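Hi V.,

Quick status before I head out on leave. The structure for the redesign project is tokenized and pasted below; the design run finished overnight.
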């Protein structure tokens, strides 16, 4: 059952045995099937940091049709780009975040500025950031969106989401809401179903960076069986079709000993200069997992939440 499986992998003492966790680096072909990309080449796009489409490895989970994985389609430089964007840009206004209401920052401060310049305050502030929202801002109390609470989603984020969706056959996906989750080593995400969007036919796209997670997905109730899957930095999960309303969560975060975002640093040693943003982001991501979660809110033909199709 999902709830028992979650409790098992969440355990610290004793720690769980990880031998049954699906590893997409060496996937069990009895559990996943390889699926072809629906596009053969990437459109011209600057700063998206994607590998050639021909090298992408795309899998669908056998037990849960519609649950699709793209195994790290990002270059090391691409990972550095998106990690830095999540830590520096998406953690500040016009995004909304969980720290907005706690008076932890002065009016002219950002989480990034304090965490990268003030060591004393950073000790406590780094772990305080848990989420930020872009586009339609998710209301955590009502679980609804509102036309009165939204901001722009950056164009490169929209384009990245569009390409990932098209690669698995969703040709008209439009990124309208995003939640950036920031996990610490001791963080978990309880089992839940995402059903706030009016458009439940569009996929939910989830992109991981930083520390490794055990992703758990089950059925329509917490009594159904669940399956654990490693999500490493750069991995993409697309929940579509029947999988869109399955219980899922994150019971455990794991450390990374050989960070893939460092793979080509010897070719660009200048980016580790103390004044460089990546030098600052690299120190932060060593203890953080980032999840970029993007959704299409509106149904096709709608231009706002108040319209009916």
């Amino acid at each position: 059952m999902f709830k028992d499986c979650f409790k098992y992998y969440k355990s610290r003492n004793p720690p769980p045995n990880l031998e049954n966790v699906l590893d997409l680096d060496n996937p069990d072909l009895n559990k996943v099937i390889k699926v072809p990309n629906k596009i053969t080449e990437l459109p011209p796009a600057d700063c998206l940091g994607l590998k050639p489409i021909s090298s992408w490895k795309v899998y669908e989970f056998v037990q849960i049709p519609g649950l699709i994985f793209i195994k790290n389609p990002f270059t090391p430089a691409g990972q550095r780009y998106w990690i830095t964007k999540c830590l520096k840009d998406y953690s500040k206004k016009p995004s909304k975040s969980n720290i907005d209401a706690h008076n932890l920052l002065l009016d002219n401060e950002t989480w990034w500025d304090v965490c990268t310049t003030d060591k004393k305050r950073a000790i406590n502030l780094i772990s305080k950031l848990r989420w930020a929202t872009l586009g339609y801002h998710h209301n955590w109390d009502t679980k609804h969106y509102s036309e009165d609470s939204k901001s722009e989603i950056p164009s490169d984020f929209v384009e990245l989401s569009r390409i990932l969706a098209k690669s698995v056959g969703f040709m008209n996906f439009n990124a309208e809401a995003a939640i950036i989750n920031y996990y610490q080593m001791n963080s978990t995400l309880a089992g839940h179903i995402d059903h706030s969007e009016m458009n439940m036919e569009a996929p939910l796209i989830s992109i991981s960076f930083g520390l490794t997670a055990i992703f758990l997905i089950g059925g329509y109730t917490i009594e159904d069986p669940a399956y654990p899957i490693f999500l490493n930095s750069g991995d993409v999960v697309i929940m579509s079709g029947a999988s869109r309303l399955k219980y899922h969560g994150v019971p455990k975060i794991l450390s990374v000993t050989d960070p893939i975002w460092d793979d080509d640093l010897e070719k660009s040693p200048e980016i580790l200069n103390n004044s460089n943003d990546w030098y600052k982001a690299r120190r932060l991501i060593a203890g953080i997992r980032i999840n970029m979660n993007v959704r299409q809110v509106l149904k096709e033909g709608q231009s706002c939440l108040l319209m009916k199709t």
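Above is the designed sequence. The radius of gyration is 19 Å.

G. will cover questions while I'm gone.

Best,
W.
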